[in-house]
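Objective 1b of the project was to move from sequence-level analysis to a structural picture of ligand recognition. The entry below was assembled by the postdoctoral researcher (A.K.) and checked by the PI before modelling. It contains the amino acid sequence of the target and the SMILES of the bound compound, fe (ii) ion.
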Amino acid sequence: MISPAPHLSSVAPSPIKLRRIGAFLGAEVTGVDLTKPLDAATFEAIKQAHAEHGVLVFPHQQISSEDLKRFGRMFGELTVHPFSTSGKEQPELIVYDNKEGNPPPPTDIWHSDETFRECPPMGTMLCSKIVPEIGGDTVFCSMTAAYEGLSDRLQKFIDGLEAVHDFKPFKQLFEGSEEGWKRLRAYEEIYRPVTHPVVRVHPVTGKKSLFVNPQFTLYIKGMEESESRDLLDRLCRCVNMLEHQYRHRWEPDMLVFWDNRFLQHAAVHDYYPQRRMMERVTIKGDRPFGTGAVAAPEELRKLKAPSVMSFKDRPKRQHEL
Ligand SMILES: [Fe+2]
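Corresponding predicted holo structure:
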């Protein structure tokens, strides 16, 4: 049986008021005014609640872009998304202004933000300015609950596996010209494919979670391609468990601060051509780490013949030095 998040009565008295809004993730935070700098106790309470509940919803926060950036910076350095629509003056602020003629970007695929980076962001803050009358929800899933929902056998099997991620959904932005091709090559040099553990350990809570997603994960390292594909499909389907989700309905002037270290999310693109305007900042994270286990290569792949790469004296190919 998977344990939901602890009841708030077990949490020490806090300067903020928390109300759980989902069984496995999500809490509403009141008793705080984000137009003003926070005191240390309030900041610590929010930081702890963020790691425990994953999605923090701050309703009725009529804040400026400066307030949003200041609040974000309390948790770490703000990062600049390399493929976003942010302006040159304040690149750390992303403005999504989706309406007729500017449909939403492909954020309706389940993901954790920017896992194509060596150090993906620890958290993302999204603040609603204009919301559609119908639709435009964001759905979150606890990947800790997803991991805990797997059988012991499958948990043991995936412990120590690593997966390769890259920025594949953004590559289409460069299509169509020779200049685009050159720029893509330059970005591929900056953002080379990165390896992350399949089972990630949360740096604050110590809980394990599944850390592969259909948007950025390419394959499981060291496995036969067909086995890797089957396993990734199986693990990525875990987000479909309704019990492990929280679906957020936006109202104007809401700030939602989520933890990318153990959640995935997907935006529901059902509102176009209604207008939806949001502001976002993203906070730099640490390099993800796993349990310390490493899967032995010989357990991951059975070759029909020995790998050619294992013979040093073989004839060299044309590209080899
Ligand atoms: Fe996202």
